[in-house]
Structure formats: C-alpha cells, structure tokens
Write a structure and sequence with these properties.
single chain; 333 residues; alpha/beta; Nucleotidyltransferase, domain 5; five-stranded mixed β-sheet; 46% helix; globular; binds 5'-O-[(R)-(carboxyoxy)(hydroxy)phosphoryl]adenosine; binds zinc ion
C-alpha cells in the first residue's frame, strides 16, 4: 500500500511516499527556517502563506523521487492537528482535494502520533509495548505505547516544552532560531559542568517536567554576567543542554520503570540532540532499557512519519487518536 503523507502544521512543508507503513520511497522537506529567522520565531501567517506556495511543488517532488504517479497512491495522510490552524488548513485542503480527484481515501493524522511512529521507518524499530518520549518545540510528553493507536500519557511538561526551552535560551543568548540546533553545535566545545542549572521537578516522584525555572536561571545568569562569548558561551550552552538532557532522561527512566517498559523510543525535534541521545543510551544501558531513536532527519517534522501514522490509522479503521487532548498537561486518563 502506497501512502502519501503531507505535513504543514508548523514551519516545514513536507511530503513523502511510504510503502506499507515501513519504507520511505521519498521524503521531501521544505523548511521555512530562513523566512522566520529574522523574527526570532515562527510567524503563523507567514507560515500559512508559504505553505500555500510550497505544498504542491513539494508533493510533486515527493511523487517524482518515489518514481510513482498520483494514481499509484492508495491513501492520503495529512496532519490534522495539533499545530497552527492556518498552516494545518493548507495541507488538509490539499490532501482532501487530491483524495477527491483520485477517488482514494484520506485520513487525518495526529502530529504527535506521527512523531511517536517515525521510528517505524527504522528497520530495527521495536514493536509495542514501548515508552515513547515526545520532545518537540511544542510538546514534552511520555507515552506508554501499548499498541498502535493505544497510548497512555504518563507525564508531560507543566510549562515550557523542551524544544521551547532550547529556543528561548538561545534567544536570550542572541543565537538564531531554531535555537536547539545552535546550542547542540556550540555545546560540543563547552564544559557541561561549568554552571549548575536547575533540574525542574527532579526530586519529585512524578514523570512530569518543568523547564520554566531553567529559562529564568539562564536569564539571571546573563543579566548578572552579561551575554557570554567564546568559551563562556560554549560552557553556558553545554550546561543548559546538560540540565535538559539530564532531567529528560531521568524522567524517562522513571516512567519506564514504573510502567514496566523495557524499551524507550525518543521522538520529536529535540530527539535530534546529540547529548540527549548519548545520555539516554548511557542511562538506558545502566537501567536495562533498550533505547531507540530515529535518524536525526526523521526526528524533526517530516511527511514520512505522517504517512506511517496514517497507514496505522487506516489499518485500524479508526479516525485520529485523541492524542492532542492527551497531550494537554491538564488532561489525565
Ligand atoms: O518536532 P519539531 O521539528 O517541531 C515541532 O513539532 O515542534 O521540533 C522542533 C524543535 C525546535 O524547538 C528545535 O529547536 C528543536 O526541535 N531541535 C533541537 C535540535 N534539533 C531540533 N533541539 C536540540 N538539539 C537539536 N539538535
Ligand atoms: Zn513536530
């Protein structure tokens, strides 16, 4: 079964052709990073307008690279939320129109389920049950993946998402958007023990997260010592990154232990962070937990993960899951 996945929830216009929910024949991502950079973050209206311009060329390129035609597509899968409303509408209209024109079905996909299932494109992907940690620009949540379509929220951030913390800290340091990638790069030359930043809720017996204290602490540091440069900047980046990676991995290990899960899958843009990946593998090794992470380009937003989740949704014969609701920190099963 060939699925065309379309993703336009934020600042990436993406499309991909995936065979049988496991094999990406193409995966095209047109990023708007340069467009939003001068504003220091994503401007929703600019994002929507750019999706309108990019979406058809991106879909055409995805079909071309997969060496298939529109008529070969068996199912259209489109991100239906959560995300920027105007941006989502662009992809949804295109998905629905292509389905109408070809007489094929279309399914709406929950963006978070897409992140959770991106690992399916890896040959060595674990089968459920496993623990999925979604760490992206908008979400930081731990889910027990009991089966495809059956997810239990075990913990979530009470304030900022991990990616948001990276981006806000980068902004304080005068680094370009998106900050996570810049901090990851600069941290490589820094000392992670240079500054001891707070680990939100670390000592609490909960699987929830909090990153607002870290952000304030970095702000205080910058106000006291001025904006760092050179080695001091690298040290600050490494220290802030260490605080985030430390608390994310500690909570993931706690959630895995409490839920009796022996496999952890890292998902979402922040799962591309090198320190987070290394530390998760190190701590997983100590705790007897097998750690998986998709290749970095499948961690950030892409169309292939939407095609995978769409395939699973269609196979189950159900609509998108209530993950958007579950991801709300106020929501509890
Ligand atoms: O999943 P994603 O592409 O979009 C959302 O669904 O939010 O995640 C984007 C987030 C941004 O906050 C970005 O700074 C962060 O992922 N990110 C990283 C890295 N690459 C992307 N954070 C830390 N280290 C990275 N290497
Ligand atoms: Zn995302």
């Amino acid at each position: 079964m060939l699925v065309l996945g379309i993703e336009t929830s934020c600042d990436e216009t993406a499309a991909a052709v995936v065979r049988d929910g496991r094999e990406a024949l193409s995966d095209v991502v047109s990023t708007q990073i340069e467009l939003h950079r001068r504003w220091g973050g994503v401007v929703p209206e600019l994002a929507s307008r750019n999706h309108v311009l990019q979406v058809m060329p991106v879909v055409d390129e995805a079909l071309e690279r997969a060496r298939v035609s529109l008529e070969d597509v068996d199912l259209f899968a489109v991100t239906s939320g959560p995300g920027l409303v105007g941006a989502l509408l662009v992809g949804l209209q295109v998905g629905k129109s292509l389905a109408f024109a070809t007489g094929r079905p279309v399914v709406g996909v929950n963006h978070l389920e897409g992140h959770l299932l991106a690992i399916r494109l890896d040959e060595r992907a674990p089968e459920p049950p496993f623990l999925g940690m979604i760490v992206s620009g908008g979400h930081t949540s731990l889910y027990a993946v009991d089966d495809y379509g059956t997810y239990r929220l075990l913990g979530a951030t009470l304030d900022d998402a991990a990616g948001e913390a990276f981006d806000k800290i980068a902004k304080l340091l005068g680094l370009p958007y998106p900050g996570g990638v810049e901090i990851d790069r600069l941290a490589r030359g820094g000392d992670p023990a240079a500054i001891r930043f707070p680990r939100g809720l670390a000592r609490r017996a909960t699987c929830d997260f909090s990153f607002s204290g870290l952000k304030t602490s970095v702000l205080n540091h910058v106000q006291r010592h001025g904006r760092p440069e050179g080695q001091a900047l690298a040290d600050l980046c490494a220290s802030a990154q260490e605080a985030i990676a430390d608390v994310l991995t500690a909570k993931a290990m706690r959630a895995a232990r409490e839920a009796g899960l022996s496999r952890l899958v890292l998902c979402g843009g922040v799962a591309a962070n090198s320190r987070l990946r290394d530390l998760a593998i190190e701590r997983g090794g100590e705790a007897g937990i097998e750690v998986h992470a998709p290749p970095k380009r499948l961690c950030t937003d892409n169309g292939a993960m939407i095609a995978v989740a769409g395939y699973e949704t269609f196979r189950r014969g159900r609509g998108p899951t209530g993950l958007a609701l579950n991801a709300d920190p106020a929501w509890r099963p």
